[in-house]
Target: DUF5682 family protein
Amino acid sequence: MTRPADPADDLPVSFAPLRDQLLAAAGAFADDARPLGAILGGLVDDVERAFREPLEIFPVCHHSPSSALHMARRLAARPPRTIFLECCEDLRPVIEGLRDCRAPVALQAFASSSEHFPAAWAPLSLVCPLTEFSAEYQAIAYALENPGTDLVFVDRSADHVFQWMPQESDALEKAVPDEPGSDDEEAGMHGSAVGVEIGSLAPTFDVFRRVLLKNARVQHFSEWYDQYVEEAVVDAGYPAYRQVLFLIGSLFRRLGTTDRDRRSDELRERHMWTRIKQDLRASSVDPRDALYVCGAAHAASRVAEFGLATDAVWDVPPSTPTTWLYGLLPSSYSAICHQFGHPRGAVTLAEARWRKSLARHSLKPFALKPTEKKRARKDGDAAAPEAVPEPEAPAKPKRKVKAVAAAAPPPLETGAAPGRLLDYLQGPPAQVESDEEELLKNCVRIVELARKDGYLASTADGIATYQTAVLLANLRNRRHPTPYDFRDAAITCLEKDVVPGKRDVGRLCDILLGGDRVGRIGFESLPPLARDVYDRLAPLPIALESRTIQRALLDFRKSPELLPCSDLLWKLLYLMPPGVVRPIMGQRLLGHVPRQESWDLAIGKNQGQVIQLGYEGVTVEHVLERRLKKAAFGPDANAVDALRAAEDGLLFLKSDRLVEELGDRAVDLLVKEPDARQAREIHARIARLVHYYRTTAAGLPAWLRRFVTTGYSHYATMLPNAFADRGVQPGDLAAMLQFIFTLESLALSLGCERSQLVIAVRQAGPVTADPPKLALLWAAECVLRLRDVASLRARFDALTENELTLPALPEYLEGLLLALVFTPLVGGLTVELLSKAFERLPDRLLMPWMPKLLRMLRPHADAALPVLVKEAAAVFPSGLDALAAWTPPWNRNRSEAEKPDFEVASPAPARAASGPAERAAAALLAAHPATTDALATAMGLSTTWSEAEPTPASHSASPPNPPEVEAARALLRAFPATSRAVGSLLG
Model:
């Protein structure tokens, strides 16, 4: 390709008149003109240096409509062979997927972890947003649609972006914007990513920025740029546009940039000019046939590598071995504003100016033609995701250009014309004519929107908005109101003290002027995981691409084919942030078979979250397995983490291999547990797993049997130290005992020895001093038959009768309540102690420790209250009529103080059974004495079994019943519920 000769290329360029006038102005405004003259002269030198460069430099401002407009006209008038673009060089392959996307989108580089950067930075994420009305997007669209033009990204890589940041833990947090407000959900679409702005042109020196905005009577830099640069160059010639941008870039670089930012810019410029020279040498392209698109501030660079007149190149530092992944991420106008600190609505206003400029100049922008591949939908006739429509081709095209001017564009002014810049500085620029009709229409529509959102707006407010907009324009030296003036006027006239609806007036103005456009990534440009998610959820009767929340109703009895969709939704719920998928009805439990479920899905609205998940693996199952292993095998993992991962692996993946691996890890970590703080959760999870596996045909797996036996031995070994250590909480100690006693039968069947537990409990007795732990120890001894309930009753009776020891009673009761989680034997004793306290203690003793007692009982309401209520129901009468004659069991036979209530002093002689039923009952009790012994222990009685067999009734008459038998009958008649329960068990 040969560039057509331009007669203006060889014209001499002289900026001397401009330099002379600026120096004269410096002398007129300052007593010592040398410093100011040096600054102004330096600005002219920068403009002249950039303008004389053989490689045509195209200065841009990010998301500037005038830059995009001049780029479209420049490419249509004189197509280049190579376009060098200021963008991260490793993002170049990603742009091929832009064909299936709807702007705005963001090019993204992502690394889940890296050993070469601070650990607090992980994961590393970088985004580069693109909009249709940006010069860089126009260049990309043109290059992709014209194979004869090469597109080269020359900026530093994503890895260098993080390399050149201060390597401190909080450096990345400072580079990432704060979380957006809850009223603007779309502003956080980029997440915690570092933003790279192509053509960034904004002063970073705060003092310079404040002076600039104050003298211009504006609030934001975007408004200043719109008034003093955008309006001046949008309709100007190409040379004037370049010179003005060169001048603005030099001004900001010299006066408006901090030293730190300037050093970072110099590194980028050295990198970009090095890549440009390397590419030109490799491709043998004439520099006059190339175009260098960069930010206006970089065009005024003073680095040694600047320009093709020198062969100096930079030794680019190597990248770290970090593994980077690349893709496309949906963006939005509000996300771009939030990422780069623009005022809300600035990008929306820029799009409005872009559309008006295109209509005024009868131009159509360059656009990307969608790929021919279209995703097959479940209905078979839906089109691919919406893309930018292909514009009509111009008449008699000589090149394959997808969008050029509708009519033949005017000849592009390429000659050197320093007078253009002089005219710009000497007088006010030619401004766009005021659109009176549009302003009136906006004033009417904003009142309508305000009414719909609950504001008390009227026609008078619309008139006031119009007049205020005109007034603000006059105060700001404008010939007609701009959208910024209209927005400020609407807020002034319509905003109240309290916002009645969800949106304030500023937000309503943004909606009126164009709204917050949200991009979308096409199916073919999605990562494999995201495409797999869309394909697997296709059977659902909803539109997954919709940006509204979709309600999916799943009836598995009628549509069993939806069960795989349910499995995937539960996995997505586990992996993704809240709000992407949300179950309304249904649950996921071990062994549970679902029948119906209901889900709220916002996958289309949170497409970026699905894409981010795609960076972690190829499928959802792959990502889930990696996360489970990371949780179990992490450096800070404990037994609970590994056990939770094993349970989740069984619940979501149903992989015996994975569960076995995670379970073995949990066993290894259990042995390393230094204390019992995790014992409660460990017991809860292991109990669920034991109950689940008992319902399966295979039974308990090997790792679970190992966990039970290891846990039994481990906690039994820790008991003496746990009872003695005051740092161990009673609740943690109770959780250890709960694990031991509730799983004891299983542990003993798997080979554990109870003698280890008995020895540990005996060792704990002499070293235990805290009242709650003493109560736990006594309860454990009762379970092991090392102590009976009668001795405990006597000990607590002595405690309540002594006023000095009475304040410790609530602490003992706390221990008894904690003991209810592993044994119900102390339930009746607890009820008895509380009843005695309220019955016998005087108010002067009872009232002081009543608040402490209530505070102690409250945390145990869920676990202990049901047991206590059940025990109380068995002791107290069921009706008020029986309360008057009722005597508590612990008060009966009080006259026999030294004699137990029911004591079998010696073995009683055998008694002949009165009938077959009694003989059968006696034989059953003799065959299974454990039940009778437990009941007797619970009632504080001693038992002695007779060796004599019952005599048949036919051999002799029944002798009179001994006293103990009559007493037993009286006891059963007093408590008939026990007899009925035993009878129901025996049939």
Summary: Residues 433-512 form one domain.
